[in-house]
């Protein structure tokens, strides 16, 4: 399916969700994320994630939980050039403010993350397939970032309606290690 069609379809479906539905489904997604990470999380302390918006899987509760366990959490911040992206450590959600395109980002006072190869990254997306391909928001931030940095696991998180049999992908698109929804963990074979 074409990326443009996927974006249109999924944005509409997300708009139709109530805030309560997003919260309930998100808790189910993160229950599955917890199960997936249970075998590897003792090997890592760094979680690279994102601050959800526009009825994406709600990350806020999970971020607070990770921080409460004295683990490192890093969130992305788009560079002043509007093209680059780096991650910065936060110690509470009070350390974020509205930034690029209205998305909440770490404040300038936050320290740049070391991009540990032992870290785990939760990757946002509009759509995903069972082969680990994703449709992002069209600017290529995560594909560029993931090309330069290695992680122990790259994980897409989504609602089940964001999963497609196959999506079109390009040579610069980065495949994920897993995609996790409220219903299933799609672990991608290498």
Q: What percent of the residues sit in helical stretches (DSSP H or I)?
A: 25-40%
User: How many beta strands in the DSSP annotation?
Assistant: 12
Dominant shape: globular
Mean pLDDT: 91
Please list the strands of the largest sheet in the order they lie side by side: 3-2-1-6-9-11-12
In short:
Helix content is 26%, strand content 23%.
Write the layout of secondary structure elements.
Layout: H1 3-16, H2 19-37, E1 46-48, H3 60-68, E2 72-78, E3 85-90, E4 96-98, E5 104-106, E6 120-123, E7 127-129, E8 134-135, H4 141-148, E9 153-157, E10 163-164, E11 178-180, E12 185-187
Parallel strand pairs: 1-2, 1-6, 6-9, 7-10, 9-11
Antiparallel strand pairs: 2-3, 4-5, 7-8, 11-12
Can you tell me about this structure?
The chain is of the alpha/beta class. The protein is built from four helices and twelve strands, in the order H-H-E-H-E-E-E-E-E-E-E-H-E-E-E-E. The strands form three sheets. The protein has a seven-stranded mixed sheet. Strands 8-7-10 form a three-stranded mixed sheet, covered by helices on one side. It has a two-stranded antiparallel sheet with strand order 4-5. Strand 11 and strand 12 form a beta hairpin. The radius of gyration is 15 Å and the shape is globular. The model has no long low-confidence stretch (mean pLDDT 91).
């Amino acid at each position: 399916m074409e990326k443009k069609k996927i974006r249109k379809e999924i944005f509409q479906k997300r708009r139709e969700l109530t805030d309560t539905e997003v919260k309930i489904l998100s808790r189910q997604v993160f229950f599955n994320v917890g199960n997936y990470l249970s075998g590897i999380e003792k090997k890592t302390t760094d979680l690279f994630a994102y601050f959800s918006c526009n009825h994406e899987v709600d990350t806020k509760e999970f971020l607070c939980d990770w921080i409460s366990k004295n683990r490192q959490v890093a969130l992305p911040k788009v560079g002043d050039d509007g093209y680059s992206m780096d991650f910065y450590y936060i110690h509470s959600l009070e350390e974020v403010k509205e930034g690029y395109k209205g998305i909440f980002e770490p404040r300038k006072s936050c320290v740049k993350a070391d991009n540990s190869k032992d870290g785990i990254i939760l990757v946002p997306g509009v759509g995903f397939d069972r082969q680990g391909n994703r449709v992002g928001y069209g600017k290529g931030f995560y594909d560029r970032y993931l090309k330069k940095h290695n992680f122990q696991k790259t994980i897409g998180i989504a609602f089940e309606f964001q999963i497609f049999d196959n999506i079109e992908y390009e040579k610069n698109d980065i495949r994920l290690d897993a995609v996790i929804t409220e219903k299933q963990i799609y672990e991608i074979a290498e």
